[in-house]
Amino acid sequence: MSDKKVRVRFAPSPTGGLHLGGVRTVLYNYLFAKKHGGDFILRIEDTDQTRFVPGAEEYIFDCLKWAGLEPDESVQHGGDFGPYRQSERKELYKNYAEQLVAEGHAYYAFDTPGELEQMRQQYRTDENPAPQYDNKVRMQMRNSLTLDGDTVHELMHSDTPYVVRIKMPDEETVSFNDMIRGEVSFNTSLVDDKVLLKADGMPTYHLAVVVDDHLMEISHAFRGEEWLPSAPVHVLLWKYLFGEDKMPQWAHFPLILGPSGKLSKRDGATYGFPVFAMNWTDPKTGDLTEGFKEMGFLPEAFMNLLAVLGWNDGTEQEIFSLDEMIEKFSMDRIHSAGAKFDYEKAKWFNHEWIKKLTVDRLQLLVKEVLKSKGIEVADDELLNKVIDLVKDRCTLLTDFYEQAGYIFSKRLKALIYLLFSRNGMMLKPCSSRS
Ligand code: GLU
After folding, report:
1. How far is the CA of 13 from the centre of ligand 1 (A)?
2. What Enzyme Commission number(s) appear in the record (predicted)?
3. Is 431 part of a structural domain of the chain?
4. What is the mean pLDDT of residues 73-92?
């Protein structure tokens, strides 16, 4: 590893619930940073204003807090490389887009939505059902490569909307070394001319991620496998803007698989297990999707089960605390193949952690569960005894309610009191003050 300070980032677009795959990406970033004495940065990638979802950003912070994965730098934690919200960095990106155009690596495109649709219809074939804006069609479109200079100038200085697109080189091979997959290569002719700057002046993800990883001095860029097809665009942007030797080291984490391919929110609904870290309520529809936290998972167990979804330490060991994971984590023990999520196994981890945790730690969590069911516990001593008694029978934290909630339930106590007093027996009020 180079002697550059380790700086990693999680860069979510705040558009909804935080999927367990996202939390695993945070966890691996966090473990890597802490293992190498580095910093973990949280950057909010909110340049797509059409996907703005109120509350989604705060929700991400709440999830990380619950998981115990606090960033060193972020919108909430501050830092020397802010702003950490891309929408507040808008002015920064334009110059880079213009530099790319000036150097012939990008161009202005004026095509209207109607013209783009016409192009798709014109080039659609059985082999190519979704034609893209690429090296085969770009010279047929309305852009600064096909229009003369005066027209381009005129269009840009009238109110005509335009975007900036990367000009993918013809038949070049772009390669980079992925820390998990080794050398990965792409033929540039097969990649479309992605938009870099949109008509509203906002960058797209592709431009913003490269500019910000550079300005924030990110040493390692780790993200999910779904971003691998975008890598050639990013490698080229690095090469054109900052030099390939300055590029962070990349790693693309394996997909988390459900019963039918990539684990989705729909799988969760169909098979009855959570996929989000915490409860998420869609502000538009009001639909609630239950999270691991509210289902009764311990953050310790959640981190443990996520860590081993794609990583192991080379032994049979399955139970790891966060500190142990930091000590043992290494990128070369992450597999490139998808990791299958098994809910029964997830519950097994939780059960093991419930048995392992100290009563003091459990007490707080069990109190919270009981509180959510309307039961306030004031007698900690009694609660601790009860926890000790029933914890081996609990798989989820919510099981403590089923196993022991009645002991603290006021309604039940009142009922017993009533029954006993009806039968002429006097009952000394229970020692519990709850
Ligand atoms: N904004 C991207 C996302 O939502 C981040 C991808 C990356 O880490 O480069 O997943």
Report:
1. 7
2. 6.1.1.17
3. no
4. 96
